[in-house]
């Protein structure tokens, strides 16, 4: 059970608590990013398996496009990656807290329900762009979960590196070119061997 789920259950069982309620946005974002990483982990397994089996001579395999927060995201009149992240979090968070019985409990504490507002109980749901300066948006070139829309996923750069390292790759095998792509050395994937591929599959079961 995540910290977000524990906080939600505490409020449902014990009633409104301002201190716990004010922690919900940050805990929700932490839970959201964790779930994004879980999906990316599965997609990387599929991608590695595909490259391992494919008959392609290119040295680098491109997993997908990578964008990051840049100086334009710090301005009010630019719709960039941070703005997309903020709006996604606000929308999903507001939908979540509208569920019963959480909605009634939070309403007792003066919950703000304006979906266009970045406020929850008087504080920001999503912090400023500087707080997410290490956040990346990764759009796989293929997506086994949503092939039509080619969904993008948000992940912090260190979490992305650790995820790739957990697959048996080294940092020398990985090249991240912002606003272009996430490249993995094809030879490194081949060197993982059939045993590692089978191991990755078994972990998904």
Short description:
The chain is 49% helix and 16% strand. The chain is of the alpha+beta class and 205 residues long. Strand 2 (119-120) and strand 3 (123-124) form a beta hairpin.
C-alpha-based Rg, rounded: 20 Å
Number of beta-strand segments: 7
Strand order of the largest sheet: 5-4-1-7-6
Question: How helical, in percent, are the residues?
Answer: 40-55%
**Total of DSSP H or I helical runs spanning 4+ residues:** 6
Strand portion: 15-25%
Give an overview of the whole structure.
This protein is α+β, with helices and mostly antiparallel strands and 205 residues long. The chain is built from six helices and seven strands. A hairpin with a 2-residue loop joins strand 2 and strand 3 (123-124). It is elongated, with a radius of gyration of 20 Å. The two termini are 19 Å apart.
Write the layout of secondary structure elements.
Blueprint: H1 3-14, H2 18-53, E1 60-68, H3 81-97, H4 102-108, E2 119-120, E3 123-124, E4 135-140, E5 153-156, H5 157-166, E6 174-177, E7 181-185, H6 186-204
Antiparallel strand pairs: 1-4, 1-7, 2-3, 4-5, 6-7
Helix pairs in contact: 1-2, 2-6
């Amino acid at each position: 059970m995540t910290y977000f789920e524990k906080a939600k259950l505490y409020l449902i069982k014990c009633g409104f608590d301002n201190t716990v309620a004010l922690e919900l946005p940050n805990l929700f974002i932490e839970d959201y990013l964790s779930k994004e990483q879980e999906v990316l982990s599965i997609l990387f397994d599929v991608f590695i398996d595909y490259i391992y089996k494919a008959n392609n001579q290119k040295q680098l395999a491109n997993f997908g496009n990578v964008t990051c927060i840049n100086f334009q995201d710090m301005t009010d009149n630019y719709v960039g990656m941070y703005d997309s992240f903020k709006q996604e979090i606000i929308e999903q968070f507001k939908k979540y807290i509208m569920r019963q019985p959480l909605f009634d409990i939070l309403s007792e504490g003066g919950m703000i329900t304006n979906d266009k507002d970045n406020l929850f109980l008087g504080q920001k749901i999503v912090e400023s762009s500087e707080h997410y300066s290490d956040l990346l948006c990764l759009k796989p070139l293929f997506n086994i979960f949503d092939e039509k829309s080619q969904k993008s996923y948000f992940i912090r750069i260190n979490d992305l590196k650790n995820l790739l390292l957990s697959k048996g790759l080294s940092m020398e095998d990985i090249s991240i070119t912002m606003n272009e792509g996430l490249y993995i050395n094809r030879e490194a994937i081949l060197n993982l061997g059939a045993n590692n591929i089978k191991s990755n599959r078994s972990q998904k079961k």
